[in-house]
Amino acid sequence: MGSAGAGKSRRMPREVRERQMMDAAVATFGQRGYRAASMDEIAELAGVSKPLVYLYLNSKEELFTACIRREADALLAAVRAGVVERGIAPDQQLWAGLTAFFAHTAEHPDAWSVLYRQARTHGERFADEVAGMREELVSFVTGLLREAARATPTSAEPADLGDRDVVGVAQALVGAAEALAGWANETPDVTAREAASTLMNFAWTGLGGLMDGERWSAGNSAVVRR
Amino acid sequence: MGSAGAGKSRRMPREVRERQMMDAAVATFGQRGYRAASMDEIAELAGVSKPLVYLYLNSKEELFTACIRREADALLAAVRAGVVERGIAPDQQLWAGLTAFFAHTAEHPDAWSVLYRQARTHGERFADEVAGMREELVSFVTGLLREAARATPTSAEPADLGDRDVVGVAQALVGAAEALAGWANETPDVTAREAASTLMNFAWTGLGGLMDGERWSAGNSAVVRR
């Protein structure tokens, strides 16, 4: 950026500039990897000077931590927003959540790489940040499953799906979603919708149903037996 | 170890000594973490001198890599051995595989920590080793699912469960198993059998079935509708 641009950007609020730096940092960390990414590149991509990046975000470590937190919050917010409608059928709720999750990870591949590759690979401090997000995701899914189990008329005995079972299923569901998001983002031509649909069929219908030719259908909110 | 012990151990074959060092290394890396673990501790626990550890395994990095490879092979072998029986019903095969996986990760918590925590957290070189194991696991599960889909009499059209669907479901299943193993190993009182059973019910019956009170039962290889 020339001095004219610098003069102009000096009038930007700190918030806007910081967001630009973070956007540049997420793109750089996601594409080049945490270790290979340099503060020079990030500053250049953000169109600011390197000292300004340090002034705002202190160090590469703190900048990376800030990126992890921002992207974790964004992913959690996207999933929460996806299932905001209460009172809909549990399968529709799951479908809404999965669609939101896979749409977000597909639309933000750099953020996904920061959260699920880079943050987990470069030390416990960063991995702990992601583990925190994961716990929030599991506890959100646990809450939804609990509600769904209560709302299902046939479950006269709510103890049937025990408290620990519900947490276990939530863990399994989040683990499956993470694995599929990685697969979808790293396999050419696998769309977010396809990944969401594969997991929906698996999670809702089960392998037993899949083997019998059952499929979950978004249209009629019921399992289709072919 | 005193000099008498050292004299005795000098007659041990290299293979045996190397195994002792690796056992000590897996325990130390698993319990203390890769970074905190010292070669001194590992040598002491193995009852050998530190120079001997370096002579056999070169460096902390190479020792850690050797541990990852050994434990990845052991986990894969355990799962393969678990489903060695061909021709049994797909649900029984899945149950056998899950039981083998969770029994192995529960019986070898240090190895599990090396593979799923330490190796993933301390640099891309180690993470790549684990990614390789994961790929093998996914491709093994993919093969089983393909066989099962072919063997199921109702699937007149094998295209029903497409090639990519099968890979996606295998990814989901492995991701779910990894997440549940972590949860089981880090949550007091969650047994391997409980984790295997939670995943079996979820994976076979699906959430739709679970909500309706269905459970998979090992005894009669059929879904029990309560």
What report would you give on this structure?
- The structure is a homodimer of 226-residue chains.
- The radius of gyration of chain A is 21 Å and the shape is elongated.
- Chain A folds into two domains: 1-57, Orthogonal Bundle (Arc Repressor Mutant, subunit A), CATH 1.10.10.60; 65-225, Tetracycline Repressor, domain 2 (Orthogonal Bundle).
- In chain A, α5 runs antiparallel to α6 (90-107) and α8 (124-151) packs across α9 (163-186).
- Chain A contains ten helices and two strands.
- In chain A, strands 1-2 form a two-stranded antiparallel sheet.
- Chain A is mainly α.
- Chains A and B meet through α6, α8, α9 and α10 of A and α6, α8, α9 and α10 of B.
Summarize the structure.
The first copy, chain A, has 226 residues and is mostly helical. Chain A is 74% helix and 4% strand. Chain A has 10 helices and 2 strands, in the order ααααααααααββ.
What attributes characterize this protein structure?
homodimer, 226 residues, mainly alpha, Arc Repressor Mutant, subunit A, 2 domains, two-stranded antiparallel sheet, 74% helix, disordered N terminus, TetR family transcriptional regulator (chains A, B), transcription (chains A, B), transcription regulation (chains A, B), HTH_TetR (chains A, B)
User: In CATH terms, what is the architecture of the largest domain in chain A?
Assistant: Orthogonal Bundle
Q: Could you give the distance between the termini of chain A?
A: 61 Å
What assembly state would you assign to the polypeptide chains in this entry?
homodimer
Largest interface: A-B, 57 and 57 residues
* Strand order in the sheet with the most strands of chain A: 1-2
Number of helices of chain A: 10
Uncertain runs of chain A with pLDDT below 50, 5 residues or more? 1-7, 155-159
Question: What percentage of amino acids of chain A are in beta strands?
Answer: under 5%
- Helix fraction of chain A? over 70%
| CATH homologous superfamily caption of the largest domain in chain A | Tetracycline Repressor, domain 2
Succession of helices and strands of chain A? HHHHHHHHHHEE
Instruction: Write down how many β-strands of chain A occur, each being a DSSP E stretch of 2 or more residues.
Output: 2
For this structure, the CATH topology of the largest domain in chain A is Tetracycline Repressor, domain 2
CATH level-1 class of the largest domain in chain A: Mainly Alpha
Please, how many domains of chain A? 2
Structural class of chain A: mainly alpha
| CA-based gyration radius of chain A | 21 Å
Mean pLDDT of chain A: 85
Main β-sheet of chain A, in a few words? Answer: 2 strands, antiparallel
